[in-house]
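INFO  loader      accepted 1 record
INFO  loader      residues=171
INFO  predictor   begin
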Amino acid sequence: MGTVGSVTVADTVELWPVYDAVFGDHASYDEWRAEVWDRHVEREGFRLARARRDGELVGFAYGYTGQRGQWWTDHVAAVLEPAVAEEWLGGHFELVSIGVLPSARGAGVGGRLLEAVCAGLAQERWLLTTTADAADPARRMYAAHGWSVLGPGIGPGTVVLGRLNPAAGGP
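INFO  predictor   done
INFO  writer      dumping tokens
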């Protein structure tokens, strides 16, 4: 499992069915590309990790450098305590998505993707949004990898998690 800093059209075509199976939040490939993917892959610090089983893509993780003026960062700034937002937002690594097909879950794929996408990051602060349910497998995975709750998330039932880069003195 390695990471890449850019993607081809073939990479994008391969990723879409996994993204759609996991999240199902866009009506079509074209809509997803226009509304999300094409903008994200152009952002500073973009990186993608992929997991395969028998040559088939079963999971992915991606993120980029988050900055003020970007949708997620600005919306998170509005819900976090001002001091937390000031300390954590801007120049952070924003983990946008980790997606693992249901057939590959429970085997540590998500944790390995998380480690791969975060390996060697230069950003001192890392952030993501996930479920507020502490018993959810994703939350348990993030906690096991040193992530902790910084405050409420943007949507109902979500929280923002953060982690300091261990290479920069974080846990």
